Amino acid sequence: MTSTILLIAFAAAAATLVGGALALRLRDKLHLVLGFSAGAIIAVAFFDLLPESLELAAGFHDTGTILLATALGFFGYVVLDRLIVLHTHHDGEDGVHAHAKTRGWIGAGSLSGHSFLDGFAIGVAFQASSAIGLIVAAAVLTHDFSDGINTVNLVLKNGGSRREAFRWLIADAAAPVIGAAVTLFFVFPASLLSLVLGTFAGFFLYIGAADLLPESHHAHPKFLTTCMTLLGAAVLYGAIRIAG
Q1: Between the chain's N and C termini, which has fewer beta carbons within 10 Å?
Q2: CA–centroid distance for 159 within its chain
Q3: What pTM, to 2 d.p., does this model score?
């Protein structure tokens, strides 16, 4: 199990690097991938993490408690997103202001923190079951691919150099490996694991609905990206059903 978790974590790191490399070359051609990623991550929250959380909670917590954990995860991510200025936009002709580069670094650093949580989510999901771990891993891989894209874009659009963008990309790629490794040193009891999975469902709902969906639709044809979002949800739903 340990080797599987670490192997998937390294795959997440590779996905981050690939996403960042493509962002450096094909910055206007990735909206379809982001749309697919959004659908996949939202589907994992609705069809995998929440049902499993409710099942594990039997005898420990009622449905309202699990949904509260999900809501806290969602709104906690909202607060985190605002505090670290993840979405910084500089429109107009004045260009990037004096603090733009620092803000770009803060945004890139926050994405590395997100990637750490992704790796942590993989390890926690495998504690629930191998099937859940694999489903979460599939969603994390698509998310980390987009994280790599966003890390590079945040640094570059805020006045950073390609070398600085590459350094942040390496940090972002290492983060899920560290996050997954942390979970190897302790095991959550079922009562706590149910709350953790519910919280991660809130994280995934926010990432998909408030981050990936708007990014995929921004200044791009809506119909095709919407189709890719629905396809991402359908593919993950099918995978979840097959995994049982």
Answers
A1: C
A2: 25
A3: 0.65
Q: Are 9 and 179 in contact (CB under 8 A)?
A: yes
The whole-number pLDDT of residue 67 equals: 94
Classify residue 92 by burial, with Cβ atoms within 10 Å: 0-12, 13-18, 19+: exposed
Indicate the DSSP class of residue 26.
Answer: -
Percent of the chain with pLDDT over 90: 7
Location of structure tokens 């980390």: 144
Whether 234 shows a pLDDT value over 70: the answer reads yes
Of 171, 153, 175, 190, nearest to 24 by C-alpha is 153
End-to-end Cα spacing for the chain: 19
Tokens 């919280």: give the residue. 199
Predicted confidence at residue 27, as pLDDT, reads 57
Six-digit token string for 167? 């350094």
